[in-house]
Amino acid sequence: MHNMALCFQKMGALEECALCLDACLHQLNSQYLLPKFQGSPTKKLKKLKYECKIHMQVCALLSQLHRHSEALCHAKRAVQISQYLIRDLTDLCKINFDKSCEAKVKEQVVHEE
Question: Quick check: pTM over 0.85?
Protein backbone atom coordinates (compact mmCIF):
# COMPACT_ATOMS: atom_id res chain seq x y z
CA MET A 1 0.00 0.00 0.00
CA HIS A 2 2.86 2.36 0.84
CA ASN A 3 4.47 1.65 -2.54
CA MET A 4 1.20 2.57 -4.27
CA ALA A 5 1.13 5.81 -2.30
CA LEU A 6 4.63 6.65 -3.50
CA CYS A 7 3.63 5.92 -7.11
CA PHE A 8 0.58 8.17 -6.81
CA GLN A 9 2.79 10.87 -5.32
CA LYS A 10 5.25 10.63 -8.23
CA MET A 11 2.36 10.89 -10.70
CA GLY A 12 1.02 13.96 -8.91
CA ALA A 13 -2.17 12.23 -7.76
CA LEU A 14 -1.92 13.66 -4.26
CA GLU A 15 -5.47 12.86 -3.14
CA GLU A 16 -5.03 9.18 -4.03
CA CYS A 17 -1.63 9.19 -2.35
CA ALA A 18 -3.13 10.58 0.85
CA LEU A 19 -5.84 7.90 0.77
CA CYS A 20 -3.23 5.14 0.40
CA LEU A 21 -1.15 6.53 3.25
CA ASP A 22 -4.24 6.75 5.41
CA ALA A 23 -4.91 3.08 4.62
CA CYS A 24 -1.30 2.32 5.64
CA LEU A 25 -1.93 3.93 9.02
CA HIS A 26 -5.09 1.89 9.52
CA GLN A 27 -3.32 -1.34 8.53
CA LEU A 28 -0.39 -0.59 10.81
CA ASN A 29 -2.71 -0.37 13.81
CA SER A 30 -4.92 -3.31 12.83
CA GLN A 31 -5.58 -6.17 15.23
CA TYR A 32 -3.80 -8.48 12.79
CA LEU A 33 -0.48 -6.64 12.88
CA LEU A 34 -0.39 -5.49 16.52
CA PRO A 35 0.90 -8.85 17.89
CA LYS A 36 3.81 -8.74 15.42
CA PHE A 37 5.13 -5.57 17.07
CA GLN A 38 4.69 -6.63 20.68
CA GLY A 39 7.36 -8.28 22.80
CA SER A 40 10.39 -6.95 20.98
CA PRO A 41 11.52 -3.39 21.70
CA THR A 42 13.25 -3.15 18.32
CA LYS A 43 10.08 -4.15 16.44
CA LYS A 44 8.08 -1.63 18.45
CA LEU A 45 10.61 1.12 17.62
CA LYS A 46 10.54 0.25 13.91
CA LYS A 47 6.74 0.41 13.93
CA LEU A 48 6.77 3.78 15.67
CA LYS A 49 9.38 5.14 13.28
CA TYR A 50 7.36 3.98 10.26
CA GLU A 51 4.13 5.36 11.71
CA CYS A 52 5.80 8.71 12.38
CA LYS A 53 7.12 8.83 8.81
CA ILE A 54 3.68 8.15 7.37
CA HIS A 55 2.05 10.83 9.52
CA MET A 56 4.64 13.37 8.34
CA GLN A 57 4.13 12.35 4.72
CA VAL A 58 0.34 12.65 5.08
CA CYS A 59 0.84 16.03 6.74
CA ALA A 60 2.87 17.29 3.79
CA LEU A 61 0.37 15.97 1.26
CA LEU A 62 -2.65 17.40 3.02
CA SER A 63 -0.88 20.74 3.28
CA GLN A 64 -0.28 20.69 -0.49
CA LEU A 65 -4.00 19.99 -0.92
CA HIS A 66 -4.78 23.04 1.28
CA ARG A 67 -6.28 20.84 3.99
CA HIS A 68 -4.21 22.47 6.69
CA SER A 69 -6.29 21.57 9.75
CA GLU A 70 -6.08 17.86 8.88
CA ALA A 71 -2.37 18.26 8.14
CA LEU A 72 -1.87 19.81 11.56
CA CYS A 73 -3.51 16.79 13.24
CA HIS A 74 -1.06 14.45 11.49
CA ALA A 75 1.89 16.69 12.38
CA LYS A 76 0.87 16.67 16.04
CA ARG A 77 0.55 12.90 15.99
CA ALA A 78 4.01 12.58 14.42
CA VAL A 79 5.48 14.79 17.15
CA GLN A 80 3.78 12.68 19.81
CA ILE A 81 5.16 9.48 18.28
CA SER A 82 8.62 11.06 18.08
CA GLN A 83 8.43 11.79 21.79
CA TYR A 84 7.56 8.13 22.44
CA LEU A 85 10.52 7.10 20.31
CA ILE A 86 12.91 9.35 22.21
CA ARG A 87 11.62 8.10 25.56
CA ASP A 88 11.83 4.45 24.53
CA LEU A 89 15.30 4.87 23.05
CA THR A 90 16.48 6.62 26.20
CA ASP A 91 15.11 3.76 28.30
CA LEU A 92 16.85 1.21 26.07
CA CYS A 93 20.14 3.10 26.36
CA LYS A 94 19.85 3.13 30.14
CA ILE A 95 19.09 -0.59 30.23
CA ASN A 96 22.05 -1.41 27.98
CA PHE A 97 24.34 0.90 29.94
CA ASP A 98 23.33 -0.76 33.22
CA LYS A 99 23.92 -4.21 31.70
CA SER A 100 27.31 -3.11 30.46
CA CYS A 101 28.27 -1.77 33.90
CA GLU A 102 27.13 -5.00 35.58
CA ALA A 103 29.17 -7.05 33.13
CA LYS A 104 32.29 -4.95 33.81
CA VAL A 105 31.84 -5.34 37.56
CA LYS A 106 31.46 -9.11 37.20
CA GLU A 107 34.52 -9.22 34.96
CA GLN A 108 36.58 -7.29 37.52
CA VAL A 109 35.44 -9.63 40.31
CA VAL A 110 36.45 -12.67 38.27
CA HIS A 111 39.89 -11.17 37.52
CA GLU A 112 40.47 -10.30 41.18
CA GLU A 113 39.84 -13.88 42.28
Answer: no
